[in-house]
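Contributing new complexes? Match this layout with fe (ii) ion.
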Amino acid sequence: MRSESDIRLMIQPRNVSFDWADMHLHYMDGSPLATHLMNVMHLALPAGEEWFVETFKEALPYIDDEDLREDVIGFIGQEAMHASAHTTVLQYLKDQGLDPTPFTDQMNYLFGVALTKRPSEDANPRHGLVERLALIAGVEHLTAFLGNWALNETRMDDADVDPTMLDLLRWHGAEEVEHRSVAFEVLEYFDARYSRRVRAYLLIAPTMVWCWARGVRFLMQNDPTLSTPDSRRVRWSDWRAVTKQGLFPNGRSMLRASARYFRRSYHPSQEGSTAQAVRYLAASPAARAANK
Ligand SMILES: [Fe+2]
Ligand SMILES: [Fe+2]
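Output block (do not edit by hand):
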């Protein structure tokens, strides 16, 4: 069920660009852990978003509803732009002596396995496609949650977070909130069964958490400025300190978000505010520069 206050608007990509020349390696308040928690997003999301684009292109010929087709085309444009913006951070990390390639290769492999069309699907192309759309709808619930968090976490404004990076986080977050209903509505168009949605989420959400934990460990281990084994360790208490400072969402809020996805009446429009997202996009330095 859509939220009554949700506004339906035309989804379109913004041709943003970001310059990392002045950014410090530990751009989240000087904290390696908080920074690397964010960095996992730059490492993992391009692979995921590129595969979303491929899967949605595959779904498009089956969609007859004109409004939904328009949303899907806008979604494809936005996700492609997100992937390319995050990829620029990978080069920055390489220039700082932190080569993320071993981890990004793993992410490409994982999303490739999860979302590529298999030869066995030829007999029933829709079946495999719907499974993949259900996985994407699950990931999009999590990205909308993260986007809504980034827009509303005012403690990031008080901390010493690189302003260009903060704009990237909030620009991406705002567009995730803006298009948060698309993957869900595409899934409902193909298969509205509750069991399909829940099964896919139970598979994809723990996988995402596992990827995140693995990515943070990889980055801490390979950070050239962390010289001792102790400084490279990821401790539970450090993670709690980062979330307490408002530099990453805490575990409880993530669990609550997951519980909302299991409601039968769930609709992504109940999460976050389109009006707030649009307001941020009107003020975002990168989005404004893209409009010129
Ligand atoms: Fe995205
Ligand atoms: Fe998205």
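Reviewers usually confirm one structural detail per submission. For this one: The chain has 13 helices and no strands.
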